[in-house]
UniProtKB/TrEMBL annotation:
Alphabetic keyword roster: Cell membrane, Membrane, Transmembrane, Transmembrane helix
Organism (species): Streptomyces alanosinicus
Keyword Transmembrane tagged: yes
Compartment(s) where it occurs, according to its Swiss-Prot or TrEMBL record: Cell membrane
InterPro entries (alphabetical): Phageshock_PspC_N, PspC
Record's GO cellular component terms: plasma membrane
UniProt-recorded name of the protein: PspC domain-containing protein
All residue ranges annotated as the Phage shock protein PspC N-terminal domain in the record: 4-59
Domain of life: Bacteria
Length: 66
């Protein structure tokens, strides 16, 4: 299993959708569309995106094992 990290290339805004797309084996565009559609539903999607942006390390930075 690969570590979840925000890519340095091919990302928009924070790279969260690109990281999730890589992890689940889909395209970044598909993940972005799904995120935008999920924003039409009630829930904390935007806050979750911000949290992942803060918590996920950028690709190439040192990662610590928990």
């Amino acid at each position: 299993m690969t570590a979840l990290a925000r890519p340095t290339h091919g990302r928009m805004i924070g790279g969260v959708c690109a990281a999730l797309a890589r992890r689940f084996g889909t395209s970044a565009t598909t993940m972005r569309v799904l995120f935008l559609l999920s924003c039409l539903l009630p829930g904390p999607q935007f806050l979750l995106y911000i949290a992942l942006w803060i918590l996920l390390p950028a690709e190439g930075k040192s990662q610590t094992a928990w």
